[in-house]
Amino acid sequence: MEGAIEPAPGPQAQRIAVFLRLRPVARPSGRIAASPQEGWVQFDVPKDAAQGLINNSRETYRFPFDGLLPPDAGQGEVFDRVALPVLRAALDGYNGTVFAFGQTGSGKTFTITGGTERYADRGLIPRAISALFAEAAARPGHTYAVHISYLEIYNESGFDLLEPGREVRALEDLPRVNIQEDDSGAMHLRNLSMHRCDTEEQALNMLFLGDTNRVVAETPLNQASSRSHCVFTLHIEARRAGADALVRRSKLHFVDLAGSERVGKSGLAAHTQLKEAKYINLSLHFLEQVIISLQEGRTHVPYRNSLLTMVLRDSLGGNTRTVMVAAVAPEAQHIEESISTCRFAQRVAMISNKVEVNEELDLEVVIRQLKRENALLRQELQLLRNGGASSSGDSAGTAEGSAGLEQRMQLTEAEQHVLRRQVQAFVEDPSPDSLLGVEPSMLFIRAAFDLLKGMARGTAPQGPTAKGPAPAGAAAVVGAATEAELRSLRQLVQRQEQQIKVLSDALLADQHKAFEYFCATSPAHDAVAEHKAVLRARYEEARTLGSQVSAAKQRISDLKAAMERRRLGRSMAALLRQQQGGSEEDEAEGQREAAEEERAKQQIEQEKAAYRTAYEQLKAVKADIDGVQAALERSRARLQADFQAWPLLTGNAAADRDIIRFYEARAALLKGMRA
Questions:
Q1: Do 36 and 156 reside in the same domain of the chain?
Q2: Is 264 a known ligand-binding residue?
Q3: Quick check: 315 pLDDT over 60?
Q4: Is 96 annotated as a binding residue?
Q5: Where is the Kinesin motor domain (predicted)?
Q6: Alpha-carbon distance 613 to 461, whole Å?
Q7: Which residue among 11, 28, 60, 448 has the highest number of C-beta atoms inside a 10 angstrom radius?
């Protein structure tokens, strides 16, 4: 069946794919060679003369990868090769993880999140969000629900970056996230909020707010270096359109690991920086221990040694399709760290995960289906009790009222009105579980089918819904008429059709004036004009709010960029003071800079509040626009229908029904004559 979710295959062993991305640098080292076509990189390291004549160290290191992304590879190419296959698998019910690993300043955050200067610099996360909603829209046979969470791990503590309605001036203002393990051994993140996102715009807004709250601390190697691990997760729920109880739930993680660095080489001096580096290096060490344990097939894998490894437990050796991006800077001073990154990547490439589709039965949907089937069976049983005996002529087990109902030829006006409302509600109900609850009688069933047939043709019956004797009588008249009478009737019909054609041409020639005259007296036209005025006002309000949202977002980006420039200046000044020796003036300068930093944070928080307020108002106005637009379309349809029926209406309801019946009988007669 088209649109149905195919049966899930069994667990499949799949090796972790590893890609190498080379960062563009001003002076690339000549000791590094790479082949994007063959997927390998080679480092040539000359022997150190200080180690003496006997030196058996290697001079050449060559590492193969599943794919090599050269310095000129664009963000779009990186996404297509690295993340897009994992995203499509997540839509099919497979868990997925994409994580970046490398030295500080090698381009991990740029790969995962992207840059803010150009639209083309969008990273894997914003491109995955856009592709997710595009792919879901291209699969009309399924319905998808998307939730988003954003976790930061800083100094071995977890924080929720998407906590709504809270002022965030420091990391401690965010709610802490803890890990709990259930009886089955599954890990659960406590206090980590998940936010439902129905559109790409809402998801990108969540990403922007999370990135604004993310900790960015100074370090001499990279003035805008991420000093924490971040895990951005798309929670996807997929089910077949309709009442299918089978649901597939998957998670797609994007992990931006903090940069690995050597304290002695990076020049860290401040206590906070040393503490950050210690926790970062320690968590990456435990991550490497997990990788080695999985590579060697040990019975015990030390996942519980750190919060990071517990969060990535399923991504490493579990039920997840995982892809790693090893980021290196091809410069001479970073060759040792680049070789270490490549060695780590080779260990990761030897790990295989057992991946399978995550599907289960939704018990609430199962209950609704059983109730629906129960109602249908009850109706069928009632119909058999009433209609079955009546159709066979045996009324022993049939109620007297039901027998009398079947003997009638048509429904009463009240019954027609009730049935018409039931059929209309059934047609307009978008739920696949909706039922057309009519009386268990063939008279009602035939009448309901007549109404549905009329709606399908666009001419719902306005008079008696059950077929009366008029068409049969007309056919009998035609069958009994003589040939001369038929010829006379045909000539009369032809003359009438010619007259109608002349009148129709004249009406079409002056239809615009007729429509203007009709609109001047029609209440439906007043409703259309009112909806248009409201819609224009809402569009203008939405434009104003959209400008406010864009301006607040730009101001936040400018303030963050200014903060990073000040941090860069402070880092350079700190290095200079370290070489020349500090003084009281330097201490006063540091206090002044700290005060400026605090003022900048306050400004960012104010702009965030303004951004949130304008964005929520914009969402409300967009919802109003959708409602007014729908009402406008209904009013237009009603106005057009009234205009089409206007020449046939006299203003008297009974007379109007007779006129319509006359034209319906005339059409039936013409059809019988031409058969």
A1: yes
A2: no
A3: yes
A4: no
A5: 15-351
A6: 51
A7: 448
Summarize pLDDT for 492-524 with one digit per residue, the tens.
Answer: 777 767 766 665 665 555 566 666 666 766 677
Nearest to 102 by CA among 327, 293, 286: 327
Residues 401 and 348 occupy one common structural domain? no
Bridge partners of 176, per DSSP, are 159
State whether 43 and 152 are in the same domain: yes
671 among the known binding-site residues? no
| CB of 632 closer than 8 Å to CB of 528 | yes
Asked whether residue 97 falls in the same domain as residue 215, the answer is yes
| 421 and 533 co-located in one domain | no
Closest among 441, 468, 442, 464 to 454, alpha carbons compared: 464
Domain boundary residue, one of 438, 468, 498: 468
> Does residue 93 belong to any structural domain of this protein?
yes
CA distances from 33 to 19, 42, 63, 336 (A): 16, 5, 11, 15
> Is 109 labelled as part of a ligand binding site?
yes
- The response to whether 103 counts as a known ligand-binding position is yes
CA pseudo-torsion sign 412, 414, 419, 424: positive
> Above pLDDT 70, what percent of the chain?
68
User: Helix (H, G, I), strand (E, B), or coil: what is residue 636?
Assistant: helix
What gap in Å lies between CA 443 and CA 409, rounded to an integer?
8
Domain ranges, residue 447: 363-468
Q: Which residue has the tokens 């030196």?
A: 55
Task: Please check whether residue 372 lies inside any domain of the structure.
Answer: yes
Position 633 scores a pLDDT of 79
Query: Is residue 107 annotated as involved in ligand binding?
Result: yes
Tell me: the pLDDT tens digits for 439-493?
767 777 778 888 888 777 765 554 444 444 444 444 444 444 456 666 676 777 7
Does 340 share its domain with 437? no
Token pair 């666009």 in the structure block, residue:
458
Instruction: Flag whether 507 is in a domain.
Output: no
CATH of the domain at 608: 1.10.287
Query: What distance in Å separates the CA atoms of residue 245 and residue 364, rounded to the nearest whole number?
Result: 8
228 annotated to a ligand binding site: no
**Mean pLDDT across 529-539:** 83
pLDDT tens-digit readout, 599-629: 877 888 888 888 888 888 888 888 788 777 8
pTM over 0.70: no
User: What total of structural domains would you count in the chain?
Assistant: 3
Q: What H or E segment, with its residue span, contains residue 278?
A: helix 271-296
Judge whether 106 is annotated as a binding position.
yes
Q: What is the pLDDT of residues 363-395, one digit of tens each?
A: 777 777 777 778 777 776 776 766 544 443 444
- For the four alpha carbons of 266, 270, 275 and 280, in that order, the dihedral sign comes to negative
